[in-house]
Structures are given as C-alpha cells and as structure tokens.
Amino acid sequence: MRPTGSITALATPFTATGELDLDAWKRLLAQQLDGGTQGFVVAGSTGEAAALYHPEFDLLVRTAVQLVAGRVPVIVGTGNPATARTIEQTRRAADLGADAALVVTPAYVRPTQAGLLAHFRAVADDGALPVLLYNVPPRTGCDMLPETVAELAGHPAIVGIKEAVSTPERMQALLALRGDGFVVLSGDDPTAARAMLAGADGVISVVSNMVPAAFRRLCDLATGGDRTQADALDAQLQTLYAFAGVEPNPIPVKAVLARMGIGHGLRLPLTTLSPAHAAAADRALELAQALERSSRDTLAS
C-alpha cells in the first residue's frame, strides 16, 4: 500500500433536502476517475465526516469501493478523538472494503506527544487497515511533531503521513523519513507543488474536487521534477487555492461543485457560501472548467 500522486479528499454531496445524494456521489467519483485522480479519501473532513450517520458512512465507502473496483486506493477517514472509537471505525472501513485508513490526530482532547504515539500504535497494532497519519493542527488543536512521526514511521502498518503544516522546514524534516514503506503527502494545496518538487510523494487535495485533471498534471510535473511547468500550472491554480480558503472547508469547494450540478449544500453547523462570495464562486467555476479542458487535452496527448 503506497498511496502517491494526486489524491482527492472527496466532498460528500447532499440533496436539496439534506439527504445523501448517491447519484451525485457516483458522478463525482466517475468525474474524478476520468480526470486521472490516483486515490480517494472518503469521509474525511472535506467529506463532512462528523455530520455523517453510520449508515451513510457505510453507503459512501461501499459505493466508492464498488465503483472504483480496485483502480485506485480508497482511503477512509476513521480518526476519532478516542482511540477505541478510532479502532472501531477503522475496522468498520476494513469490513466495507477500504484499502487504508486516514487517521487524524485526536481533535479537541489535545494529547501529548506520548499520547499520540500510544494512540497511533494502538490503531496500527490492531491491524485492520494500513494507516496514514494525518496532522492538521488548526483543526485538531494538537501538532504531531516530526520526532514523533519518526518513531511511528517504522511501524509496518503505518504507511505514511498527510502533513498540513505548510512550512518548508516541517516538510524537509518529514522528507527525511521517506522510504519504501513510508510516504510523505502534502495536505496543503497552496504549497503542494513546492513540497512535491522537494521530494514529497503527492498530495491529498481539496481543490482537486474541482479540477482533478489539472491536479493530476500538477502532480505528474512536480513529482517528475519539471519545476518550470509545475510552477506555471501552480500559478494558474492560485486563484482556486485562494477561493477555497474564503470560508471554512468544504464550504467554497461545495459551492463550485453545486454549480457543476453535484450536490446542493452542507449540514449544520456549516452553512452555504455567503452571498458576498457568489461572484468569486462563479469565477472559480469558469477558471476550473478552463483548466480542466486544457489539462485533459495535455494528459490525453
């Protein structure tokens, strides 16, 4: 299990009445596969995992596994604030056919580094699925330091990390841990190209929900060491990065997906995009469509 390249943290589409929109989910998956996406994260923070009921979680994962049919890895967000619940959710994902678990550091409870070591070792020791560590301090309230990651990287069931701290120093410290059994993935779209040009194995992206082919091309260029073309495409994507941050994720990206006919809104306490950003969403849609056309043409050739 070595997840690399362009991996999309999928949004979860809902109907106008707030129910899970399975038809839109299938269309989103198909659109991503057609764009060359190399892996999916189902039921992560972009997928509003905290707002999903267990039957909805099961249906999302089962449908993704069936539709993907082994073509790319299906990685499922299973992290919970409690270790026992994380293990339970990881077993659930395994039973549904997932390929790996994305396990975020426990939110809100703010464990020590020793607590993080014990937490991730317990999940990995259970052995239900290969584990991708996920560090995103602004969302969780705790920061898993590179020294802690180094102690976990040798565990045979821990296959890599998604790192959302965007500083070059943090990425360089983690890149020293890369090996055949441990990948380093960017979790920050605006600095993903820089990370991959420095040696990261890929990105778990939010923006790729809107532009799967453009992100596949960006990853191919950056992991292939083509700095000139990677930087040029990354510059074109900057407007989408900025738009994705105007309100909390996944509000902006779901506004663009809704304009594409995929889903209608979010679940409380998240609300739909503020009217003040509607024009920016329209511009983001236009840019996304143009980038997809050019990227698909390039990939096809």
Description:
The mean pLDDT is 97. The two termini are 29 Å apart. Helix 11 (251-259) crosses helix 12 (278-300). The chain is an alpha/beta fold and 301 residues long. The chain has an eight-stranded parallel β-barrel, surrounded by six helices. It has helices at 22-34, 54-68, 83-95, 113-126, 137-140, 146-152, 168-175, 189-198, 212-223, 227-244, 251-259, 278-300, and strands at residues 5-9, 39-42, 74-77, 100-104, 131-135, 158-163, 183-186, 202-205.
Rg over C-alpha atoms, rounded to the nearest angstrom: 18 Å
Give the SSE order as H and E letters.
EHEHEHEHEHHEHEHEHHHH
SSE class: alpha/beta
How confident is the prediction overall: mean pLDDT? 97
Q: Which regions contain 5 or more consecutive residues with pLDDT less than 50?
A: none
Topology, element by element:
Blueprint: E1 5-9, H1 22-34, E2 39-42, H2 54-68, E3 74-77, H3 83-95, E4 100-104, H4 113-126, E5 131-135, H5 137-140, H6 146-152, E6 158-163, H7 168-175, E7 183-186, H8 189-198, E8 202-205, H9 212-223, H10 227-244, H11 251-259, H12 278-300
Parallel strand pairs: 1-2, 1-8, 2-3, 3-4, 4-5, 5-6, 6-7, 7-8
Helix pairs in contact: 1-2, 3-4, 4-6, 8-9, 8-10, 9-10, 9-12, 10-12, 11-12
Outline of this structure?
The chain is α/β, with parallel strands linked by helices and about 300 residues long. It has helices spanning about 20-35, 55-70, 85-95, 115-125, 135-140, 145-150, 170-175, 190-200, 210-225, 225-245, 250-260, 280-300, and strands at about 5-10, 40, 75, 100-105, 130-135, 160-165, 185, 200-205. It contains twelve helices and eight strands.
